[in-house]
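Why do we care about 3D structure at all? Because function follows from shape, and shape follows, mostly, from sequence. That is the central idea of this module. The next example makes it concrete: a single protein chain, its amino acid sequence, and then its structure expressed as tokens.
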Amino acid sequence: MPGVTDLENGVRCVYMTLTHCWVVFTLENGTGGLGGGVHCENLTNSIVSNCIIISNVAYYGGGVSGGTVNDSLIASNSAWSKPEAFT
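And the structure:
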């Protein structure tokens, strides 16, 4: 993960709480401890659909952490501990 030195204080693209649905977004170049592209606090009721989640970096879940992802592209994300998508 070249150029990334501070995952805890980085800025992720989206932090979802409670019940939300994100549709047709590009989530790119985010960083964070959990989910560089998107972190879903509510594991069962947060939905990401028809999104492009690329080039994000995190400790867990480089592209996505938690929630449900439907019909989306998750690619070229990096995670130090867990894979691109982590729930």
